[in-house]
Structure formats: C-alpha cells, structure tokens
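We emphasize that the prediction below concerns an isolated chain of 152 residues; any contacts that depend on oligomerization or on bound cofactors are therefore not represented. The input was used exactly as deposited, without trimming of termini.
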Amino acid sequence: MWFAISEAGMDPVSRLTNTLLAGGRGRSGVEVGPDQIRVQMGGFKLTVPRVSIRSASRSQENVRGTYGVHSRSGRWLVNGSPDGLVELTIEPPCYTGRKPVSLFTRGKVNALTLSLADPDGFIPPSSRPVSDNQFPPPVKMSRNNAGDHLRV
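Result of the prediction step, given as a token string:
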C-alpha cells in the first residue's frame, strides 16, 4: 500500500527543487509491505522492519518552513508539508544507507516523522502485526480515550 508524502505546504521554489531532485509529485512516499515499510523522498531511502515499529501516532510538531529530509540525534523528519504529520518510534533502531542526503554516513533512526497526504489511513496498516506466528510475538493495538493515538 502506497502513502504519498504531502507537498501541500511547499512554496514554488521548493516544488521546483523537489521536481528536480526527487522526481516531482507522487514519487515521494511510504510503501507499507507485509514485513517492512519503505520511505522514499529524493535520494533518501529507508527500510524499516514492521516488527521494529513500537508506536505510530499523529504528531503536532512545529515544522513550518522546513521541507525535505532532516535529522538530529536519531530523529528524522521527511516532509513536504507542516501538516499530516505521523511519528513512528523505532526500536531497535534502523540505519540509513550511505547516501549524499546522509553525508555518506549511516545515520541511526529511532524516530521518524513523516508528512503524509493520508495520515489517518497510514497509522493502522503500518502498525498492524504481520501475522499471528511472527517472531517476536505480535503486539495488540489499542486506541487511547482521545482516539488519536495508536499504540503498538
């Protein structure tokens, strides 16, 4: 299942840069597979095993004026918009490839915030356990009273 990175907040210059570097609209997003999710935006590509996703929730982080791929202390932001943010907590952490976007180093990823066109549609599929006999054992999902956070 494919979930597009939202580009709703991009100004014309950022849209042009995104088209030149990332291939334009529809080329940046998250693919949710049976065992992993794959994130892609321009030269940034990251594969996260689904069993490593400990939580997926809507984020209220203020990222206005920031577009693209950014990291700080294991926390990564992949966005084209300040809206539709989803944060994934990842344990054990995964690592980026050695690409120009990560300055040719393997960056640790223990939290990932994504701006998605359909954040509410993304949260359940990315957090659902793969099967009843996976290792480690599947986790149960539940909503808190506010109904806006899914725990895995």
